[in-house]
Amino acid sequence: MWELFLTFIKIGCLSFGGGYAIMPVIEYEASARDWMSASQFHELASLAGMAPGPIAVNSATLIGYEVAGWGGAIAATLGMALPSLLVMIGLSALLVRNFELPLVRKVLYGLRPVVAGLIAYAAIRFLIPLAGAGWLNWSFLGTLLIAAGSFVAMAKYRVHPLPVIVSAGLAGIILF
Amino acid sequence: MIAKAGLLWQLFWSFIRVAPTAFGGGYAMLPVIEREAVHRRNWTDKETLNDLLSLAAAAPGGVGVNAAAAIGYRVAGSPGSVAAVLGMTLPTFTLVLVLGFGFTLVADQAKAIAALQGIQGGIVGLIAMAAWRMGKAAVFDASTLVILTATLASLILTPIHPGWLIAGGLLIGSAVIAGKGWLGLAWRLERPKLEQQEEHVYPEYYI
Questions:
Q1: CA distance A133 to chain B (A)
Q2: Do B17 and B41 fall within a single domain?
Q3: Looking at this predicted complex, what is its ipTM?
Q4: CA of B189: which chain A residue's CA is closest?
Q5: Would B205 be classed as within a structural domain?
Q6: Confidence class of residue B28 from pLDDT cuts 50, 70 and 90?
Q7: Nearest CB to B116 within list A113, A164, A172
Q8: In terms of domains, do B168 and B195 share one?
């Protein structure tokens, strides 16, 4: 439980750029500590993505529960939220008003492309385990099709994520 | 003392109401936060709130939790921060566990597994969307393109801890800006405003 708490504190400190960028970090830590397999992780992450709220914190809750029950869920969630809380208290105390925006923007210059890479990698990681039995199997191609459809619906037609997720679930029931 | 406890309770309760609206990521709830903090409770004015929110977006962690911490601090100091963050976390914590339990109940049904797999596809689409938006905001010159390519390559080809890449991006980005300034080259920190505006939502909207 202590290990869960400390691990998610570490992850929380690194979570610049918010939820999706941190998913590869969470997966890395979870598999390095033998908490769960990649496919188990992606199952939990899908559930986490369905609930409102940041996917990273939701995943932390579910992983904590999976590893150590109720206490684990609380420890992981607190670990994830604590660094944000402390950093924000510190920053707010230092910079009550008129903080140094140019500095923040300089930092973001190099950070943003890394975050974009991390997010893209998170999407790729979701697809890899499905292709385990070869690239040309039904479940891989079906998932890819749903992913592409969801992307187009949101990018082109600006559909809200909620109906996209619901239709993806329905499409899954029909396809698989 | 009693007034202070009342204020903390108000913070906690306000953010409990805001949190479940965060479907599709933290940025979706910013308008709701504004309505609650500026118009309903009169905690800050709009301008201060915008400053707080850009700070919340830049700090590590989810923008929603960060915004709660920043507003809580302004209203009632550190205890206010804690109350607001607890309020922000509790509803989603409960909901995601309920979802988890709900799924274990039906996990032996073939069609439930099929639905979850479909949702996995939807999540991939959602993440790809976030990567696309982030990429568009991030890559606008040669150095940012190199950083993006190098990040993806090292993630796919090496077992490196992603934390090092984040630190590397910070360092290399600052070094590039400093170097360009020193050489007298033109540099800019963001995509020019004109292109950014046609995007019309925050680039990190879905995160």
A1: 16
A2: yes
A3: 0.77
A4: A109
A5: no
A6: low
A7: A172
A8: yes
Question: Of B79, B106, B133, which residue is a domain's last?
Answer: B106
Structure token pair of residue A165? 């997720």
Please tell me the distance from the alpha carbon of residue B169 to that of residue B181, in angstroms, as a whole number. 18
Percentages of chain A per state (helix, strand, coil), in multiples of 5: 85, 0, 15
Tokens linked to B53: 């929110």
Asked if A54 contacts B65 with a C-beta cutoff of 8 angstroms, the reply is yes
Q: Does some domain include residue B206? A: no
Q: Which domain holds residue B60?
A: 2-106
- Find the CB nearest B148 among A10, A117, A169: A117
Angstrom distance (rounded) from CA A84 to CA B64: 10
Residues B118-138: pLDDT tens digits?
888 888 888 888 788 778 878
User: Among residues 88-107 of chain A, which lie with CB inside 8 Å of chain B?
Assistant: 88-89, 91-93, 95, 97-99, 101-102, 104-107
- Residue B182 inside a domain? The answer is yes
Mean pLDDT score of chain A: 81
| Nearest C-alpha in B relative to A143 | B121
Out of B64, B114, B121, the one facing A150 most closely (by C-beta) is B121
pLDDT digit string (tens) for A19-46? 677 888 888 888 888 888 888 888 888 8
* Residue B73, in any domain of the structure: yes
Same domain for B16 and B89: yes
Stretches in chain A below the pLDDT threshold 50: 98
> Are B64 and B78 found together in one domain?
yes
